[in-house]
């Protein structure tokens, strides 16, 4: 019996991609039309934004724990959260959660280590890029990181919150992300982390100057692997 996966959703597009990835990749392991039992609980992104902007980790954690308790009540064996930014509150969550979690940045770090990437560029919300989530996780694997300059961080953040979370994907924004990735390559990065779970819906890995670490799909695959252990 596969374990029951719980998804703590924050933004709809990223959570949907994570869910679809599990469901579409599971049949190769489990048989036609099969995937682990999955329950998703979503508190509106709007409720998360005030504590995100204020850096209120306790309130952020409280929202995440509300979802975790719903998932545990539904029978989930463990939780994943396909949102990188709110992982800043992870330590507040895990100590009180009724079920264990997978940490999205640690999943990415493990894949980077296995791929031999010594330095990663980090893309995501401005809170994620300038925050501690990836520095802490990558330090465990001895991997360096680099973030874009302030102007690029602000523009990326604007694209995420005005376009990507609303399922708006423009060619202009795609090309802009490619330019930022090229800049990161120039600083010695060996690969780039798509650390906002909507970015993979925009960026084409075949059109980038660096290898891509898609945090959304990597988390989904790690969840599938854990469910099948």
Overall tally of domains: 2
Class of the largest domain in CATH? Answer: Alpha Beta
Number of separate strands: 7
Main sheet? Answer: 4 strands, parallel
**From the helix content, strand content and strand pairing, which structural class follows?**
alpha/beta
Note the beta-strand portion.
5-15%
Tell the overall outline: globular
Please give the CATH architecture of the largest domain: 3-Layer(aba) Sandwich
Number of helices: 11
Note the gap between the termini.
9 Å
CATH topology of the largest domain: Rossmann fold
Contiguous low-pLDDT stretches (5 residues minimum) are none
Gyration radius over CA: 17 Å
Strand order of the largest sheet: 5-4-6-7
Portion of residues in helices?
40-55%
Describe the structure.
The protein is of the alpha/beta class and 229 residues long. The chain has two domains: 111 residues, 3-Layer(aba) Sandwich (Rossmann fold); 112 residues, Rossmann fold. 51% of the residues lie in helices and 12% in strands. Strands 5-4-6-7 form a four-stranded parallel β-sheet, with helices on both faces. The protein has a three-stranded parallel β-sheet with strand order 2-1-3, sandwiched between helices. It starts with a strand and ends with a helix.
């Amino acid at each position: 019996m596969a374990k029951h996966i719980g998804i703590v959703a924050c933004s709809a597009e990223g959570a949907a991609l994570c869910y679809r990835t599990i469901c579409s990749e599971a049949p190769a392991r489990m048989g036609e039309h099969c995937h682990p039992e999955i329950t998703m609980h979503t508190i509106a992104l709007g409720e998360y934004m005030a504590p995100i902007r204020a850096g209120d980790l306790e309130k952020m954690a409280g929202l995440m724990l509300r979802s975790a308790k719903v998932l545990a009540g539904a029978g989930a064996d463990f939780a994943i959260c396909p949102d990188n930014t709110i992982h800043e509150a992870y330590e507040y969550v895990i100590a009180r959660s009724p079920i264990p979690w997978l940490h999205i940045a640690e999943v990415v770090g493990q894949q980077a280590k296995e791929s031999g990437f010594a330095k990663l560029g980090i893309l995501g919300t401005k809170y994620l890029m300038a925050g501690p989530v990836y520095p802490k996780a990558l330090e465990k694997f001895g991997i360096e990181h680099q973030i874009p300059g302030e102007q690029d961080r602000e523009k990326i953040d604007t694209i995420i919150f005005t376009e990507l979370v609303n399922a708006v994907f423009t060619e202009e924004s795609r090309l802009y992300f490619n330019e930022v990735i090229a800049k990161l390559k120039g600083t010695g990065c060996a690969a780039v982390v798509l650390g906002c779970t909507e970015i993979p819906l925009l960026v084409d890995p075949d059109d980038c100057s660096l290898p891509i670490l898609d945090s959304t799909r990597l988390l989904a695959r790690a969840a599938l692997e854990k469910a099948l252990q």
